[in-house]
Amino acid sequence: MAELLCVENMVKHFPVRGDIPFLSKRVHALDGISFSLRANGSIGLVGESGSGKTTLARCIMKLERPDSGDVLLDGRSIYRRFGAEELRRRVQMVFQDPGGSLNPRFSAEKVVKESLLHLGKATRQEVRVRVSELFRQVGMRESDVKKLPHQFSGGQQQRIAIARALAPGPDILILDEPTSALDLSLQAQIITLLDTLRGDLGLSYVLITHDLSVVRQVCDELLVMYLGRPVECGVTDRILRDPKHPYSQALIGSILHPDPQTRDDRAPLGGEIPSAIAPPPGCRFHPRCPNRLDVCLKSEPEPTLLGDGATVFCHLYGDDCAI
Amino acid sequence: MEYVLDVRGLEVRFFTYFGIVHAVNGVSYQIGEGETVGVVGESGSGKSVSAMAVMGLVEQPGYVTAGTIHFQGRDLLTLPDREWHKIRGNQITMCFQNPQRALNPLMRIGKQLTRIYVTHKHARVEESRCRAVELLREVNIADAERVMNRYPHQLSGGMCQRVMTVMALMCEPRVLILDEPTTGLDVTVQKQLLHLLRVLRDRTTASQMLITHDLGVVANICDVVVVMYAGRVMEQAPVEQLFARPMHPYTQSLLRAIPRVESRIVLHAIPGEVPEAMSLPLGCPFYPRCTSRMEVCEQFAPDLATVANQQQVAVACHLYGEEPNG
Amino acid sequence: MTQNVVRAPDELTKLTAESEKHKRVTRRKLGFAFLVFRSNPASLTGLVIVVFVVLAAVLGPAISAASPDRTNVRTRLETPSASHPFGTDKYGRDVLARVLSAARVDLLIAMGSIGFSMAVGTCIGAVAGFFRGPVDTILMRIMDVIKSFPQFVLGMALVASLGPGVRNLILVITIITTPVFARMVRSRVVSLREMPFVDAARCSGVPRLKIILRYLVPNSVGIIVVTAALNVSYAMLDAAGLSFLGLGVRAPQAEWGVMISTGMNDLMNGEWWTTVFPGLALFLSVLGFNLMADGLRDILDPRMRR
Question: Domain boundary residue among B170, B189, B215?
């Protein structure tokens, strides 16, 4: 199956604001992330704060320019072979804060029209038809189109944002925490909607989240990130069922299941996520890792391809160590 | 059974320029000694506002318009200012959302912590400092002395959350209220916090009231759960019972609508939206979205009724009650 | 700091009725604005004064039939009376008519200059805030240079070099007020452009100019309007002050500053009305705009939070 989207070794550092340029400390937001997405597939990018997932999304959308690395769409580099507009007709994004992602002065209709106006090539009549169709697809009522964002609930705002993203007819949607800001009873609505749309429109998703239950529901594959580095990636089921990397294990072990029977009084993972300005040397997870080895302090682990197709970045599984 | 905190029929309304917001609409729940009660609800459920009422923090244009809040035998709503000051921050304390913003940005942590103890317990500053450092160590803040000298913006979110917890525990309260303590925290930090709360619960006799929208948090640490929707209590039950045999259609729908990590399930999304607090319908607020609704539900809001001899088990639903007269 | 508890049923019905009444008002456009002003007597007073002043300026000729410029040696320096409510000045001109005519001039200068500086300042601030980097630095340093001079002194220097007259006065006050708007708008734009809806606009292919004009500036209206209202009074004071000194508007044109200055000599002789009335008019207008600005800020800010 041909790969639709291929992210190769993305590196992005930000200078720390307010510092003198050459004495600069840099925020190591991304330090070599790669993944690929096949047509009609869906991959989840999972990580906590500082993992770099939002930066990655912004680089893919060309809202930021990475320091090095590339993103290939249909095998062509988006930085060298795609104009910004052309890219955004193929890849679109849904943002984390639904209210904040809508211009407070634009009606729902206008929000979606903007997208069509600037990225689509359509006549006035076609635009009207398309707007209606999009609203219908995301489950918005025709009577609501003239309302302003603050008159809608979070779930409805997110639907408008999805409609806007779908307007130019993209193949890939990047969803940045699409349900985190929503009420529980509405999360399922949006998840269901996303599922339906993927099937009906043949979309592919890059889902960014910290919520593993959403990943389970929506994504076929998943990539766990920590402090800008990859940790483990593979088929969702495999990783959630049997995580190999100590961080993945801790992450999955930290999940609070809505089920009192699974209460877990074990000691949690200690420490906190270190600052991305001065990431620990070697494997970035080593200060908190219960299985730390000497080599972990010195060098970053290489990717190890495991038998079941998953890849883990950990010295415990490296060539020189027996599993 | 004597409850530490007994809320009955609480009503809080906000008289705004745009209409009356019925934030809390006849809410009752009880917290026993040493219990951890989880108050769960979505936005607009009134869970935070009811906690504010318990703390005496409802301000203009909000008014408590009905109900009683009994704490140690006294109705807090009838207390004069002087008495409130002795209770708030001392015997009933609260940890707010957004810890970094809830701490005074211009004051060092040490000062913020010691002041509370000095004020309420009329203790000396040194004694206060000792206690603060001790508590900071108990919540796993390693270099407690250094943290005492820091300002809130110098600490991470997780640290601030723990500092705020310490602040709330300085005076050994009988009731500790935590408003969305895990929201915004990283998953691994969340687990640390819950572990901490469990440890604290075992060490002290304080009762905890945990306000959250996260059912996972509730399942993991609470003894009793109170489910709120649109300003009312829909169901109250011990935690195992709530998850295993939910009674109220709202609870049932909610449990069917959340995704699970264990496996991909068919999500039964609840149709519709949470009602606007300004235009609440007459009958049961869940009526438009309820799959088990009946005609009576549209006209009459069901009362919260305790279930057959079981303490702290109650449900507000016509499916379980008698038909009202008229 | 006790929380509000209401038990008595009649108090409850009173609160409910009041809220219902308010709700009916806010349903209509500007209803909310009306309520805010009503609850804040100071800003309501300000609004009333401003309306009064504007009406007086506009309807001037209708209020006083007398001509502001016609001299009449025989009726010079008459005390206020029925035929001349504000008296006459040393050339026999009706002071009331002159005060009203001056109102038009002063309002024109103030509003005109605020209008222009609002336009120019907003453009500069929006461009600087949106593009950041060298563009931001250059533009804001220019603004800083202007702002580093004491406003009035700079005004004096500019008018002295450009020459007197209403047009030049407007130009000068525009120049000295532009940095105020530029700064305000820039800081608002800098925080707005971090918002997701700006990113979303970029992802939708919206060109940068349109982002500035339709996304950033419209969402800065609140702060622009409040800044404008607050600075109208300064502009008025600048205009009157400069004219008082003989720079700016010159006699025999009716303008409050000029009138105050020419009337000062009369004051020595006990003829107070030639100075006091224009002075009062100026004071009242400045006060009115300032108070009104407060109310405007209340309307525009919390509403945003809604």
Answer: B170
